[in-house]
Request: fold
Amino acid sequence: MTVAKKPISGGVKALPHTPIYRMHRYFARRPHNVINTLIEHYSRPGDVVLDPFCGGGTTVVESLRLRRKVVGVDLNTIATFITRCEVMDLDPRDVETTLEWILEITKEEINTLYQTPCPQCEAEAMANWTKWSVVYICPHCNHPTVAAEAEKLGPGKYVCTHCGQGFHVTNLPRKADKMLEQHVSCPTCEFEGMKQVTAEDIQRCADLERQFDSISDREGLWYPQQVMPFDYELRKPNNLICERFSDFFSRRNLLALARLLRRINGIEDQKRRYFLQHVFTSVVGWTNRMVTDERHGWALHAYWLPDIYCENNVWNMLKRRSNWAVRGKRYSQGEIGDYYVEAHSAPDILWGNATCWLLTQSSTNLPLPDKSVDAVITDPPYGGNVQYSELSNFWAIWLPETLGVENLIYSPEEAVLKRYKEGEAERFEQLLGQVFSECCRVLKDDGWLVITFNNRDTRVWFSMLRAARQAGFHLTRDGMTYQAPVADYARTLHQLKDGAIKGDFILSFRKVLQDRSGAGQVSWLRHENVETFVVERVTEVLGKGPATFSQIYQEVIPALVANNTLDREVEGLDLEKVLFDNFALEEMPVEVETDWPLKKTTIRKWVLPEIQDQEEMA
Reply:
């Protein structure tokens, strides 16, 4: 028998990531203490917890912390690579010593690439980071316009600095990017600060660009040269200038990364080499042309090239990421330590001394016997919100032998929507259903399937709920509760933009058993009543005051689920269209977190229409 008799009710205060999760970025990680609370509620020490979409390893880490056994499965080899490095039993002192050694032997060969004359004593200093700007050719006058020096009219829109006319940057020709400024450190006079770019700085970078191939050949350096597939979901006009993944890096950083990887791959001890390769791919995320400033790495779930970007010194980033790696392993050692014992088979995890089994495969065919798992706790793909494989290839291409990737990560069994391909909704629902069916097979009769889920598209909700029901699960009464996001992340521009969905829903499912009368039986509202139902619910929400799309969504989705309306009969429901047809939008001031402490901006909120508007519509 498992611990929980009733589904969890109410969310918990979501906390920021602990050091173990800050060692390496992964996409859409859920708050660790939320997952920890779910594991504690739905299982007990010694139970076997399954996560069929283990991703960045949150369920695996928190299960081990709570002294459960855990099976983490993911098609994506980067996911299991990152997760294994989080939990593997490594002495943090050995990690620190090895990283200090790598820093020492690479310091000169990497930092020579970033040498610049000190603005104070003129000795050789080191550029810590360099700001660059894209230069567009104005379509009206054919003159170059430096994005950083032009008036910005909106996203991708500038005023030409020569003719004064506005233009959009999509598909425009470019000139070479312009170096803007550098932050430097001088070992001779100890100057540290900003430096205006000189002609010599520009020439040194140009020389490196020109000599890149000869230097690579002379030193026998390897770097990935895979072409970025044109049919990628994330292929956009903004990144078409990058034919290969390597084009997302400056030539200077590409040389530095190649020199660093050569040193790491030369480490004889397999376990240490494996972990340092994990540190290396973390560095990759901070040293590409998608980085906007020295304090933030690659942050978006996209291949987005900003018009003004920051070229971070690779050795400096190695030092910074090494500090996080040591902190992460100290945390891992203190919270998990030698409790982590890797399994290699089902008997190991179910009846042996092993506590963690990580599988790089599809969860549509789990190598586990029937009714062998006590709880399934997972964060499945949210439709097409995150293109996991496409994004993960940015790291995977650097470690083909370690990860067993011949060219690129790809699997037709990845349960992610490709929005621009026919039949994707049906494929997504089918794959999700196959995974849920396997979860139902291996889950004990009194176990729970618990998922965190969110998507602004009601059709994705239909697919997920149908897949669960057809697999043999039913959503229990009071089995849906809202979980707010981490407060520190909820006031960013990204989170407050129009239509952004904040937080998740926690859904608790039980297996449909013959002795549970009425389980799985559903009765639907008629299609013609659904829009009226939604309008009435939104009117109740807005009667309490203006609300964002996310706030309305948090009220409407549970109401639809509770009234059994999420089925094919109402799949045409478009919540945004209902809002535009029946309610009004107003601009309202708000303060948001940015690179500066606070920024005042506006956000659009939905309000009840004025009485005269209602009369005119009538």
